[in-house]
Specification:
It is a single chain. By secondary structure, the chain is α+β, with helices and mostly antiparallel strands. It has 2 domains: 3-65, no CATH class; 123-182 and 217-321, Roll (Outer membrane lipoprotein wza fold like). Helices cover 31% and strands 17% of the residues. The chain has a 5-stranded mixed beta sheet. Strands 10-9-13-11-12 form a 5-stranded mixed beta sheet, with helices on both faces. A 3-stranded antiparallel beta sheet has the order 2-1-3, with no helix packed on it. Strand 1 (22-28) and strand 2 form a beta hairpin. 23% of the residues are buried. GO terms for molecular function: polysaccharide transmembrane transporter activity. Residues 79-123 form the Soluble ligand binding domain. It comes from Candidatus Acidiferrum panamense. Pfam families: SLBB.
């Protein structure tokens, strides 16, 4: 069998194949173990054209590789831009094209645009989040089995506490399972600022990317362990503590030391990254979400983080249900 015979038996070359960069690897089979003898570059196009010098005879165990053309996967690549731009739609993009170029081609931002709340979604981020979410759920399920086993051997009071912890963990797991995965990548688009093009914030685009730029949200959302989870009209200059009071305050189940804010751009402000008087002293912007987590009954700081993750996911789902990016 020759190179041309092998390729034709495989159905021929696909459109994205690079026939000039073929690679042929020979193996020698001995009594002990197969070993690679040599590899060489082959001109597949010439072999298919009938040139005898290129159409080499294959040996048992040979491996012929026909690589993909450089940049082929970017042919036909497109991204979607929606919302407050002059010309929303689907745009073809070139390898290396950046966000500033897309915004310019889309006619720029409208006066009603609020780029601070832009939602940029990427397929690879979605896949990574999905994998991480599933691994987290599986780990929590394994831990829950251990906790359930401990209940049967505990005293009455301890068993009651453990049972409450099991129910809480189940609620957290259910919330994680229900919450959609966005694939959101936090970005800081400021096309109106000098020096934005080519800066670190001017990210490179990839096939399948999606960007939505909303109008200025006129509200702040507060969710979790408050007496009235709601969207509250945004009032400039007000801090998180003011919005908490507008919601009726925290319930007795609230972990007030773990309150955090999901900013409109997708970043998070928590007690861990606040240097002054805690997150409640932070000024809140339009479109921000204040999350008041539930106290974790049993499980330590690890479960506190898991509970916060679940409530972040629930907050994102609530915003999506309201039609808010």
């Amino acid at each position: 069998m020759k190179i041309s015979d092998l390729i034709r038996s495989a159905g021929g070359l696909v459109r994205g194949a690079n026939p000039l960069g073929g690679d042929l690897t020979h193996y020698a089979t001995t009594a002990e173990t197969p070993r690679q003898v040599a590899s060489q570059t082959v001109d597949v196009s010439s072999a298919l054209a009938g040139e005898k010098s290129a159409d080499l005879t294959l040996r048992d165990g040979d491996v012929l590789t026909v690589p993909e053309r450089t940049g082929w996967r970017n042919v036909g690549a497109s991204v979607t831009i929606r919302g407050e731009v002059a010309r929303p739609g689907v745009y073809g993009v070139q390898l290396g094209e950046r966000l500033s170029s897309l915004l310019e081609r889309a006619g720029g931002l409208l006066p009603t645009a609020y780029p601070q709340a832009a939602v940029f979604e990427r397929i690879s981020v979605y896949e990574s989040q999905q994998k991480g979410r599933q691994e987290l759920i599986e780990r929590l399920e394994r831990e829950s089995v251990v906790v359930k086993a401990a209940v049967s051997t505990a005293g009455i009071e301890e068993a009651a506490l453990q049972q409450a912890a099991i129910e809480q963990r189940q609620r957290i797991l259910d919330a994680l399972r229900r919450a959609p995965i966005s694939g959101r990548l936090v970005i800081h688009p400021h096309p109106e600022q000098k020096g934005f093009a080519g800066s670190a914030d001017d990210i490179e685009l990839r096939a399948g990317d999606s960007l939505k730029i909303p109008k200025v949200p006129g509200f702040v959302l507060i969710v979790g362990q408050v007496y009235n989870s709601n969207a509250i009209t945004f009032t400039p200059g007000k801090k998180a503590s003011w919005y908490l009071s507008q919601s009726g305050g925290a319930t007795r189940l609230a972990n007030t030391g773990a309150i955090f804010i999901i900013r409109a751009n997708g970043s998070v402000t928590s007690g861990r990254n606040e240097m002054s008087y805690g997150v409640l002293s932070s000024e809140v912007g339009p479109g921000d979400t204040i999350v008041v987590p539930e106290k974790v009954i049993v499980g330590g700081s690890g479960w506190k983080d898991v509970a916060a993750t679940a409530q972040m996911a629930e907050a994102a789902a609530l915003l999506g249900a309201m039609g808010i990016p």
